[in-house]
Write a structure and sequence with these properties.
It contains eight helices and four strands. It has a single domain, classed as Alpha-Beta Plaits. It is of the alpha+beta class and 162 residues long. The chain starts with a helix and ends in a 21-residue tail after the last helix. α4 crosses α5. The chain has a four-stranded antiparallel sheet. The longest helix is centred in the last third of the chain and has 11 residues. The structure holds guanosine-5'-diphosphate (GDP) and magnesium ion. Guanosine-5'-diphosphate binds next to α5. It is an enzyme of class 2 (transferase).
């Protein structure tokens, strides 16, 4: 029973986001982080950084071979990005809802992509698509000592997922 409780807690309290180069360039770090925190996400880790082409290629490995892959890698390594681990119950699904459809023309009103994306390929933000990928992507950007949780956030229960 204890194990089952732990297992449930491990699922889905964090996700990984990036504010993409175009959104950083257009000075949208503040508005986008503001929307994220207004929707109840806590920021557990945060950095401004820049991906090399090799690092962007690794991050988007799953899309290798698709027609948009080279452009995606080129774009994602074209300038600084903001990477963050954000925390909320059911984080992956909740955040995918907040960012909206991959294609901003299909994204619902009020979503981050509807508000801030320039196009399908320059769509302002990334959000992990599963708990497994959220954990992988978090580890790609952040070490254990770059993640912070005040006592009140009760992060200890899912430390195993790190
Ligand atoms: P996401 O999880 O919503 O970000 O979408 P995907 O994982 O499917 O794709 C990764 C990123 O590649 C997206 O955020 C888009 O910016 C870009 N992308 C996806 N599909 C297409 C496409 O058909 N054409 C172009 N140009 N870019 C795409
Ligand atoms: Mg994706």
């Amino acid at each position: 029973f204890l194990f089952a409780t732990k297992f449930v807690n491990m699922a889905g309290n964090t996700t990984l986001t990036m504010i993409k180069p175009g959104a950083v360039r257009r000075n949208l770090i503040g508005p986008i982080l503001g929307m994220i925190t207004e929707h109840g996400f806590k920021v557990e880790a945060l950095k401004l950084t820049k991906l090399s082409a090799r690092q962007a290629a690794k991050f988007y490995e799953v899309h290798r071979g698709k027609p948009f892959y080279d452009g995606l890698v080129n774009y994602m390594s074209s300038g600084p990005i903001v990477a963050a681990i954000i925390r909320k119950d059911n984080a992956v699904a909740e955040f995918r809802e907040l960012i909206g459809n991959t294609d901003p023309e299909k994204a619902s009103e009020g979503t981050i992509r509807k508000l801030f994306a320039e196009s399908l390929s320059h769509n302002a933000v990334h959000g992990s698509d599963s708990d497994e990928n959220a954990a992988k992507e978090a580890a790609f950007f952040f070490s254990e000592t770059e993640r912070f949780c005040p006592e009140e956030w009760h992060c200890d229960e899912d430390m195993e997922a790190y």
